[in-house]
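Field log, afternoon session.

UNIT: design team B
ACTIVITY: writing a sequence onto a fixed backbone
BACKBONE:
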């Protein structure tokens, strides 16, 4: 009986580079185990004989490339994901920010199809400050940004969705009172994670808040000028 031969893992540096070039993703910045799982599944799915063969397939087959990019980048989200985090935003964190601000500027970094931004928009509406607030959603995947734009919330806020790579592009040039980057850093290698956390911290206004995902934290928030104020929430120094 024939048995399915899995691709040879771990991936060599050459295989990783070839796959990264073909997929258009700096794979060395993503967690190796995650990349290898995605590569293994893609080899099996496409019937390729190994990582180099897969890289060639990704370079010439747009559908296979899109499928590989999506499996690696995981553009999955939903409204009020991890509901208790939104409860904390509504009852405590946003009212705290609004004590010395009339409106909120918010960045949903790695927003996928935009539900996180739309969930915050609902809270701002309930708090009576949606109008005049500034909401930015960014993601590296162009097609999810298109979907996010098509469902952008109304209500007098300025809402923008932009394609932006957290690893390769500069941070936005304005300041934000609230930055959400949830379930994105979990896929990055620790050094890439720290690089991204530095960018996120750099755009926070004084007293502004960074919220990470349920299973994410900052090991040494003080290196980014932040203090921990909740399990996954960090505040920029006020002075
Ligand atoms: C699991 S989703 C998280 C969506 C939302 N933040 C949430 O928690 O529901 C991860 C998103 O991060 C995006 N992403 C991954 N790497 C990225 C990068 N280097 N720059 C920008 N976005 C990235 C993916 O495209 C994907 O849409």
């Amino acid at each position: 009986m024939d048995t399915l031969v899995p691709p040879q893992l771990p991936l060599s540096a050459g295989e990783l580079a070839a796959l990264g070039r073909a997929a258009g993703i700096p794979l060395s910045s993503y967690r190796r185990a995650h990349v290898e799982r995605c590569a293994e599944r893609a080899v099996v799915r496409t019937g390729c004989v190994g990582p180099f063969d897969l890289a060639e397939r990704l370079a010439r087959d747009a559908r296979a490339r899109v499928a590989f990019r999506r499996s690696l980048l995981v553009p999955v989200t939903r409204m009020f994901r991890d509901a208790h985090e939104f409860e904390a935003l509504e009852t405590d964190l946003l009212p705290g920010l609004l004590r010395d601000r009339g409106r909120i500027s918010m960045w949903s970094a790695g927003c996928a199809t935009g539900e996180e931004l739309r969930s915050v928009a609902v809270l701002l509406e309930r708090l009576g400050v949606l109008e005049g607030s500034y909401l930015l959603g960014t993601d590296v995947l162009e097609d999810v940004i298109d979907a996010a734009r098509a469902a952008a919330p109304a209500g007098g806020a300025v809402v923008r969705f932009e394609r932006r790579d957290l690893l390769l592009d500069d941070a936005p040039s304005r300041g934000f009172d609230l930055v959400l980057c949830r379930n994105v850093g979990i896929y990055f290698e620790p050094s890439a994670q720290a690089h991204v956390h530095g960018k996120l911290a750099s755009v926070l206004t004084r007293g502004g808040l960074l919220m990470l995902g349920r299973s994410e934290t900052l090991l040494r928030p003080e290196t980014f000028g932040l203090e921990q104020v909740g399990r996954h929430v960090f505040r920029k120094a006020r002075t």
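LOG NOTE: The mean pLDDT is 95.
NEXT ACTIVITY: expression trials, pending approval
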